[in-house]
Amino acid sequence: MKKCKLIGLMALLPLVLGGCQFRPLEDMEFQTDIQVAVDINAVLNVTCDIYNELIPIPPIESEVFRVLFYDTQKDKLLGDSFIYDVYTDPGSGRMGIKGKVSIMPGDYRMLIYTFGTESTQIENYDSWEKSKAFTSNLSEAALRSLSLKADGDEPISYQPDHLLVASSELESIPYHTGVYTIEAEARSVVESYYLQVRVKGLEYVSSARAVLTGMAGSAKLNTREADMNDCKSIYIDLLKSTDQGDDVVCNVFNTFGRIPDRDNQLSVKFNLKTVDGRILEREYSLNELFESEACRLHHWLLIDDEIEVPKPPESGGSGGGFDPTVDDWEREEHEIEL
Question: Cβ–Cβ contacts within 10 Å for residue 78, how many?
Answer without folding.
Answer: 15
